[in-house]
Amino acid sequence: MSFCRSIGVALAFLLGWTGNSQILAQDQGQDAYALVQDTTEQVMAVVVAADDYVDSDPERYYSQIQDLLDPLIDFRGFARSVMGPYASSERYRALDEAGRKQLIAELDRFTAVMRASLVRTYSKGLLAFGGSRIELVAPEGDAAAGAGNATLSVRQLIYADKSQPYVVMYQMGRNKSGDWKLRNVIIESVNLGAIYRDQFLASAREEAGDIDAVIDSWTTVVVDVEN
Q1: Domains annotated on the chain, with CATH
Q2: N or C terminus of the chain: which is more exposed, having fewer CB within 10 Å?
């Protein structure tokens, strides 16, 4: 299964589309599940409607998907994690006022670039989505301890084109306002956040630490996901 299709299917399932699926959710994950379920109905309506116009006006489709995903995904937190030491709290504290303003500007710009890149990848995968059997397993780990937890890991089994299911882990976290946000996705053993971070750091080395150049040349890597 190609990375693009994998990540697109993963997003479709993350959004809680329940066709041919079994959902087992504990009470402490209810708010997170309600968020993805509500988003699902809107996203899938856009995907279905896009058949009539996506070839002639793909930007319209990407824009609509992005508007729906913004409340779900912590794009800024994800971008900061991908930038690693270049956007860390330690680096921020070590800079003077001008340096801090530059770091914030770099993070703002990279967030926008990363957001657009991820949305396009997800959106293309959604268009190619076909029906599969899905099992969304009850939250484990931190979520099992009680409703007040700040993190929630959701394990999902996707029965698609192989005898064994694809395993997808969704890492959700609460922001300062207490709202659930998607922080990372792991497909099989492929940690998307870690892959993008490695890509960013390698590019930063090639550009001798010129973060603007890294952002200007950023494209989301394509990875094969196999089990």
Answers
A1: 3-216 (3.10.450.710)
A2: C
| Six-digit token string for 71 | 């409340």
Q: Are strands 190-191 and 151-159 parallel, antiparallel or unpaired?
A: unpaired
Q: Model confidence over 107-143: pLDDT tens digits?
A: 999 999 988 888 887 787 767 554 456 666 655 544 4
Task: State the pairing for strand pair 190-191/133-136.
Answer: unpaired
Q: What are the Cα distances from residue 96, in Å, to 9, 44, 80, 102, 146?
A: 44, 47, 19, 10, 42
- Taking the CA atoms of residue 86, residue 88, residue 91 and residue 97 in that order, the dihedral angle to the nearest 10 degrees is 100
Distances 73 to 103, 154, 170, 222 between C-alpha atoms, Å? 22, 15, 11, 20
Higher pLDDT, 83 or 175: 83
Single out the residue of 192, 218, 188 nearest to residue 203, CA to CA: 218
**189 exposure class (CB count in 10 Å sphere: 0-12, 13-18, 19+):** exposed
Contact between 206 and 189 under an 8 Å Cβ cutoff? The reply is: no
**What Å distances lie between residue 216 and 45, 104, 165, CA to CA?**
33, 16, 38
- Least confidently predicted of 42-56, 60-74, 211-225: 211-225
Contact status, residue 74 vs residue 173, Cβ threshold 8 Å: yes
Q: What is the pLDDT of residues 158-181, one digit of tens each?
A: 776 677 887 777 787 888 888 888
Q: In what order do the strands lie in the sheet with 180-187?
A: 21-23, 133-136, 151-159, 166-174, 180-187, 190-191
